[in-house]
Amino acid sequence: MEQLKLKELILNVLKVDDRLWDKNKKELNQTLLLDLVENIDEKIIDLLFQEKDIRERFFVKIKNIYVFKTNDFCFFMEENKVDNSYTAYKNRIGLTDGKMFLKNTNDVILDWPYKDCVLEGGQSNEEGIDTYFEYDEKIKKYEQKQAKRKEIFFNQILAYDEIDRLFDHKALVNWKRFNKDGEQEVKEIRRDENGLIKENLIIKGNNLLALHSLKKQFTGKIKLIYIDPPYNTKNDGFKYNDNFNRSSWLTFMKNRLEIARDLLSDDGGIYIQIDTKESHYLKVLIDEIFGKENFRSQIIWDTSIPYVAGNKWLSNNWIYSQSTIFYYAKNKENVFFNKQVYEIKQPSGDISKKPYKDVWTDIKNFAGFLGAKDIKLDFNTRKPEELIKRILLSSVKIGDIVLDYHLGSGTTCAVAHKMGIQYIGVEQMDYIENIAVERMKKVIDGEQDGISKSVNWQGGGDFIYFELARWNETAKEKILKCKSLKELEVFFDEMYEIYFLNYNLKIKEFKEKVLKEENFKNLSLDEQKNIFISMLDNNQMYVNKTEMADKKFGISEKDQKLTSQFYND
Fold it and tell me: Is the pTM of this model over 0.90?
């Protein structure tokens, strides 16, 4: 019997057990079911045994006794747990050996539970917070509440259709070229004689999806990747959802490092900056993806400053004053490394002409001014340009391409631009426009901070900015334009039919119950709009290239043309 029919049969058989269902017998409490099964609940076991097809599948006869195959049944129910049509697999994600979940075995395995998953890593806002509304019986009104965002995981085995769609090339919009004359229209995308794009690119959008959108044009073409990712701490100043647990953080890193490796050229390498909290776990992960044999160096950057803040002296521990940078090759036999000799100021103050050691003490942990005195840059993790300059000097030459997919304040692109090296920067947060882009405009104008004097920077050059086309953003704009609750109600039908909503939204209950409640009707229009906006799934924001001609997405012919040019269709 095929899986779906068997699942339907099981559900029908279990309908008689009221413990397992809501009042309308619509939703199965699968967590309770599995708990009861694992504790050999007689009623449930008997119900399952009475049905011939279920008995043949999940019971084994030993002499005259039937034994229930508990693990097989639990695995089947978990593997075939289907949620609503918008998120097909809201599942307890876990590793399996093909027969049972590993939590049900006695084996000891060094692993993490989301290893076989894809974490898109989107944000509701810059603090990684979800906003929702809940009715408070005490005050008789809807209260706006906030909670740490609940990330959506797609299982690579169960949800491959969703992942294929997730990784499809995205439509690209809002194209702009910036040069010394300011913002310009993008009329063409320059390429070399081999068809490779020869443009500096700054891309706004989810970095995992952006990396997959770069795959067709840049696989095997990137010489160097430098990233300074979120460190998985609660207070490092990075404006991502920087409060993952370790398992999900490792998944977040793994998904991106795998595609990053594909983008690297055979003589390329990657530098990954991290702090001590996750460095050891991260190194095991990078060993797995790049191969232990391709580990080149663990660079220790001395980040100490001439004085130590009082609160650090109060800690009963050694003062933390260093950052780790892992350097890996795509292929250690072919990796390019510049062995030219530099001058290094030693801790003693002496100047010696020796190749750089893997402990860097001469680059101060002070980023200085980031390109424009009139730009407010509240970005505590910005890196000094000298640090990136040293990395680029050692691993790239003119004609190579550098990628930073955690662009932040834009230091990698700023340094590459001044050194005449082609670059690609990706950032998904809204501050990309008023921090990184504004900084790059000042670089083009010839600002003299950072490494400018050491490389005799005089200004010039250009870069192209574009964005991954967002879809749910359109729904948000339509909600904001509604002039009454009646218009919101009319739009709701379009909203749940066309757009992507949060996986835990009960559409029928909201439409048939909440919208009709007097308490909801008595809310202000702005509060009602905020409730509608909070229903949108922020992990489903982007339009696939194959669908960009659909008029519902509102992508201009110009943007469609440039998107096709980019993918070289």
Answer: no
